Amino acid sequence: MAPLLSVRGLAKRYGGLLVTDHVDLDVFPGEIHAVIGPNGAGKTTLISQIMGEVPSDAGYIQLAGRPLNGLSMPQRVRAGIGRSYQITSVIQQFTVLENILLAVQGCQSHGFHFWTPAVQTRALLEQADQLIALMGLGAYRDVHAASLSYGQQRQLEIAMALAAKPKVLLLDEPMAGMGHGDTGSDRMVALLQGLRSRCGILLVEHDMDAVFSLADRISVLCYGKVICCGDVDTIRNSAEVREAYLGDEEVAA
What does the buried/exposed string (b/e) look like for 216-240 if buried means 16 or more CB atoms within 10 Å of the residue's CB? Predict the structure, then answer.
């Protein structure tokens, strides 16, 4: 099976600091591929390079066989890359529906005349309502984003990213701000499991319970370099990973 996303030799240098060190990874259809590592390992920079927000100094990226090098971030979105961020980027004074309508219309060929045309366009409303239902936000359709819990805002942000119908979704710490054992975290894990049939997922996450529950494969990044890649058992049993990141207690958990 050919990968949806293929990254080879991706590097980014800031002065003398090599933040991503010739990283190789793939995301296959239906796969959740997690990237873990200590703070400062280069995980967010890697996602930003794939998204086109940070230019790479070396390497190449392909999506479904199409080279992405040289494409802008909007061009990569249109090609099939979606992203969420560490800090939620929803518009707080908009309702759930308005936020998603904004994302849906932004992916259409219409001009950006948002309010009246969008509300009157049945197809846009239907697509927005489908995303609201998919992310379990039906009861909050007309609630302002500022009134949502942090976990619900993360769900809303992912719904907005899905508006572009991405082939691959890049998720940067979707569990951030949720406590260990939080019901919001459990809900997010279940929602991400349900997205497998829609797109491949590259997941950066510090919540190791979530990572071990979700990931088909895990790449461990340390000082910008992938030191190990494999399934959950491979990562749990790696002495190098234990020394660099997990620690004895987390591996034994």
Answer: bbbbbbbbbebbbbeebeebbebee
CA–CA distance, 61 with 39 (Å, rounded to integer): 24
Beta strand pairing call for 58-63 and 5-14: antiparallel
Name the residue type at position 13.
Answer: R
Lateral strand order in the sheet of 17-27: 17-27, 5-14, 58-63, 66-67
Could you tell me the two tokens for 23?
Answer: 């990283």
In terms of Cβ atoms closer than 10 Å to its own Cβ (0-12, 13-18, 19+), residue 144 is: middle
Measured CA to CA in angstroms, residue 46 lies from 2, 8, 61, 112, 159 at distances of 21, 12, 11, 31, 22
CA distances to 41, 44, 153, 191, 245 from 38, in Å:
6, 11, 25, 26, 6
> What is the reported pTM?
0.88
Q: How many CA atoms lie within 13 A of 165 on its CB side?
A: 8
* Secondary structure class of 81 (helix, strand, coil): strand
Cα–Cα dist 13/137, whole Å = 41
Q: Which two three-digit tokens encode residue 59?
A: 């390497």
Mean pLDDT in order along the chain per 10 residues (253 residues)? 95 94 96 94 94 96 95 93 79 94 76 51 88 94 94 91 94 78 78 93 93 96 95 93 68 37
What CATH code would you report for 5-252? 3.40.50.300
Q: If phi over 0 gives left and psi between -120 and 50 gives alpha, with beta otherwise, what is residue 13?
A: beta
The string over 180-207, giving b where at least 16 C-beta atoms fall within 10 Å of a residue's C-beta and e elsewhere, is eebebbbbbbebbeebeeebbbbbbbeb
Is residue 197 within 8 Å of 191, Cβ to Cβ? no
